[in-house]
Amino acid sequence: MTVEMIFVGTELLLGNIVNTNGQFLSEQCAALGLPVYYQTVVGDNEERLSAVIETAFSRSDVVLLCGGLGPTEDDLTKEVCARTMGIPLTEHPEARAELDAFMSRLNVVITENNYKQAMAPVGAVYADQLPDEKKAGDGRGGKGVENDGDENEAGSGEGGRKSVAADRCLLLRNPNGTAPGLLMEKNGKTAILLPGPPNEMKPMFLDQVKPYLVKKSGQVFLSAVVKICGVGESSVETRVLDLVDSQTNPTIATYAKTGEVHIRVTASGKTGEEAQKLIKPCVKELKKRFGDDVYTAKPEVSLEMAVVKLLNKYGLTITTAESCTGGMVAARLVGVPGVSDVFSEGFVTYSNKAKRKFLDVSKTTLKKYTAVSAETAKEMAIGGVLANDSDMCVSVTGLAGPDGATPEIPLGRVYIGCCLKGKTVVKEYNFTGSREKIREMAASAALDLARRCILEQCKGK
After folding, report:
1. Which of 19, 113, 355, 397 is the most buried (most CB within 10 A)?
2. Is 155 helix (H, G, I), strand (E, B) or coil?
């Protein structure tokens, strides 16, 4: 079963909005083992949207359409997709009632154009109203209502097809917005329409579409993601190339992330247990090859979560002392639930004066070696420990640019220090890219250095 994606919206073509939905849906389909060979971004144009839908159905089994379900005239996805598939639309009473209730909760006066979102294929029912065995299985789910011959907007107009009821049409509830999603099956093809706002699309996909795709594929897919820090993508690929070339189930693929490389291992089986048995030895082999470069094999675990877990495991507290990252390391740590048990304070000491005042960095050190130096990073890390009476401190100082580079201190030069129980380690890094990219990579490297220092001093205790 192949999946294709269409993202609708002129704002995407103009670059006004970054298509984060594409990344999310691609990762989800990859985790399910569903091949995605094509993605298309198309503007709010009826003719072009119809053409890309036609093309998608000519080469794919399932087409995910994202965006264009709103109340305005340029929201065309549902109408164009229904007409292209030859499926008639009519107002759905329950969808209208849900729309009224949602707007009432927001204390917003509804306008007539909002009821455009209550249009649905003839005979459509909400997916959660089906008997359990039909919610995402094969066969007809909704009532098979044949067209009585009346034309409507889905089948009328020049070039419109003769409208007949779909094999199955399901409405997908949207508790976070006004536009319900839609799933239409006809002649062996499936269109799944999702709202554009990520806070509406993501829960709808995870709660209602993902289970459908799992059942439709007839297989159980499981994934593990072996996440690696401190090793470049080309080096990682070289070290796993024999596994990549020899495996068909599970499959192995590498992905470069900011400051990390992820190896996704995906297996399919008739049951979850069967798929898990295929994944386990592969993950074990990857951990053996990369050792402490691996910080997790769970998709949901981030680098900062892994650091907080180690801090809790060994009863350690941490402080951050940052210059060029401006609090990014602290912000990532604070994003982890329960971090208050191990983190109470972070310092953003951007100026030399702040480094001296809060971290007791020597004036002599700053003058002799400058703020971007191993010596300053070391004193920042030690000073952070003393200032907060913590077990460890990770420090970051560097030149993120775009200005200020010299022959001695090139753009992207960053020093990261880690002081843990009296032992201080400082490493030099040379990152490339934009200012923001350098800062993001420095934050990841700081978390990774903290993780490695903990493992080095505490592992086995």
Report:
1. 397
2. coil
- The residue assigned the tokens 């839609």 is 182
Q: Tell whether the torsion through CA atoms of 101, 107, 108 and 110 is positive or negative.
A: positive
Phi and psi at 137, nearest 5°, equal: -90, -165
Give the contacts of 346 (CB within 8 A, at least 6 positions apart). 319, 320, 321, 322, 327, 329, 330, 333
Q: At what angle do helices 272-290 and 233-246 cross, to 10 degrees?
A: 140
Q: Which two tokens stand for residue 314?
A: 């060994």
For residues 71, 73, 76 and 80, what is the CA-based torsion angle, rounded to 10 degrees? 120
224-263: pLDDT as tens digits = 899 999 999 999 999 999 998 888 899 898 989 899 999 9
What are the φ/ψ torsions at residue 196 (nearest 5 degrees)?
A: -80, -40
Distance CA 210, CA 192 (A): 11
Local structure of residue 211 (DSSP, 8 states): H
Residues 397, 351 contacting (CB under 8 angstroms): no
Look up residue 432 and give its amino acid: T
Count of beta carbons in the 10 Å neighbourhood of residue 293 = 20
DSSP result, 164-202 = ---SEEEEE--TTSS--EEEEEETTEEEEEE-SSHHHHH
Instruction: Judge contact between 121 and 89, C-beta under 8 A.
Output: yes
Cβ-in-10-Å burial (0-12, 13-18, 19+) of 318 comes to buried
Q: Which residue is listed with tokens 């005239």?
A: 73
DSSP class per residue in 263-315: EEEEEEESSHHHHHHHHHHHHHHHHHHHGGGEEES-TT--HHHHHHHHHHHTT
Q: What is the pLDDT of residues 400-450, one digit of tens each?
A: 999 999 999 999 999 999 999 899 999 999 999 999 999 999 999 999 999
The length of the chain, given as a count of residues: 461
Report how far residue 24's alpha carbon sits from residue 31's, in angstroms, rounded to the nearest whole number.
11
Give the closest residue to 356 by CA, choosing from 344, 367, 342, 345.
Answer: 367
Record the pTM: 0.73
CB 48 within 8 A of CB 175: no
Burial 118-130 (b: 16+ CB within 10 A, else e): bbbbbbbbbbeeb
Q: One-letter amino acid identity for 22?
A: G
Angle (CA) 208 210 211, round 5°: 75
